[in-house]
Amino acid sequence: MDRIILHCDLDCFFASVEIRDNPEYKGKPVIIGADPKKGKGRGVVSTCSYEARVFGLHSAMPISQAFKRCPHGIYLRPNFEKYHKASKAVMGIIKCYSSLFQQVGIDEAYLDLTERCSNYNEVRTIIKKIKNEIYEKVGITISVGCAPTKSLAKIASDYNKPNGITIVKSDDFKEFLKDLDITRIPGIGKKTKVYYYKKGIRKIGDILNTPLKKMRSKFGKNGVWVWKIANGLDSRQVKEYNEERKSISKERTFLEDSSDFEFILRKLEDINERINKTVIKHNIYYRTITLKIRLKGFVTYTRSKTLPHHIQDKGKVMKVILELYNEFSSSKKIRLVGIKLSNLEKNLSLKQSNLIKYASV
Ligand code: TTP
Ligand code: MG
């Protein structure tokens, strides 16, 4: 049997927590977000119950527009503290079912059950157990998708929301995908889909029927990525960001040793971008920035700078890296460059302020 990966995603998360705490809202259109001020409010919808979605409401919609479509809805301001507490409780339950657990964002997680299950009946039993435990202990529902890759598991969890279970067996995944709209693929949003629709690609089946070469020439990198997803070629592992982690680093060895500043700068910028993605995803702040340079002949230098405060700022990282690079002088060609961020901290209060920005309230 192939890998067994679950993707778990809470249903209309913020709204579910509010409905749990106010049972009189059950079955009603509940909207979490900015104050609608009778249709004159600024800001957006954070999320809404499925009853509100019937009126076309969705996350990120201007709250004034939501009010026009659903004036009788129950409009509530978000209570992030409550949502963080619920999220922590849910994640605490999910992670008990496998050591391969990865939380993504506030209400999603992956779980690898490959070692634990030997058939899909066992998988279904565990999914039901997880869902029941979450409902009993936290009082909200979650949708779970199971598939042989992370991206397919994510498509599966979204397939039957709310409170759904979708198991996509490794032999059946193309059958499952073929009639789905391409926007089901994470990475094809409203804007990207236009390019695909124009070239006649609407269903995932159309991608399956297109050779990789053609996908690359027509849609570039995005085309290759979605082709791989559709063909089950996503080998990304389920791995937890380790709270005990002391540093984050990435480096690049050049195909040929170089002393071309422009080239080296581009590589450093590329490394910085990649590290920044990890930093944002795990909400990490750092104080120490280190540049690593390995010269032809394997002599390695490192130069560091420690800042007075923790930051999360890729522009500042690049500035420090350039300062450190300028301090360094050698006539020898460079073989490898790397950036390391250390003195790390996961900062919850800033995370909350980001969420507030997110919800524009
Ligand atoms: P999602 O999982 O995207 O949405 P959801 O859980 O509300 O609904 P679904 O049943 O479709 O999964 O996001 C999780 C929470 O993150 C959501 O409850 C509120 C917050 N959020 C925002 O504040 N703004 C946004 O634009 C989005 C997408 C989410
Ligand atoms: Mg969700």
Query: Under CATH, the topology of the domain at 247-343 is which?
Result: Dna Ligase, domain 1
Q: Please mark out the parts with pLDDT under 50 across 5 or more consecutive residues, or reply none.
A: 348-361
Q: How large is the share of residues in beta strands?
A: 15-25%
Element-level helix/strand string: EHEEHHEHEEHEHEHHHHEHEEHEEH
Would you identify the CATH architecture of the domain at 247-343? Answer: 2-Layer Sandwich
Report the CATH C-level class of the domain at 247-343.
Alpha Beta
Order of neighbouring strands in the sheet with most strands: 5-6-1-7-8
Strand segment count: 13
Summarize this structure briefly.
The protein has 361 residues and is α+β, with helices and mostly antiparallel strands. The protein has 13 helices and 13 strands. A hairpin with a 4-residue loop joins β10 and β11.
Q: Mind explaining what this structure looks like?
A:
With 361 residues, the chain is α+β, with helices and mostly antiparallel strands. Among the domains are: 13-80, 3-Layer(aba) Sandwich (MutS, DNA mismatch repair protein, domain I), CATH 3.40.1170.60; 172-242 and 353-361, DNA polymerase, domain 1 (Orthogonal Bundle), CATH 1.10.150.20; 247-343, Dna Ligase, domain 1, CATH 3.30.1490.100. Helices cover 41% and strands 23% of the residues. It has 13 helices and 13 strands. It has helices spanning 13-21, 50-53, 63-69, 80-94, 120-138, 150-159, 173-177, 190-198, 204-208, 212-230, 261-281, 314-327, 348-359, and strands at 5-10, 30-33, 45-48, 74-76, 101-104, 108-112, 142-147, 165-167, 247-258, 284-295, 300-311, 334-342, 345-346. The strands form three sheets. A five-stranded mixed beta sheet has the order 5-6-1-7-8. Strands 9, 10, 11, 12 and 13 form a five-stranded antiparallel beta sheet that branches. α4 packs antiparallel against α5 and α11 (261-281) runs antiparallel to α12. It starts with a strand and ends with a helix. Residues 348-361 have low confidence and may be disordered. The structure holds thymidine-5'-triphosphate (TTP) and magnesium ion. Thymidine-5'-triphosphate is lined by residues 9-14, 46-47, 59-60, 106-107, 161-162, 358-359.
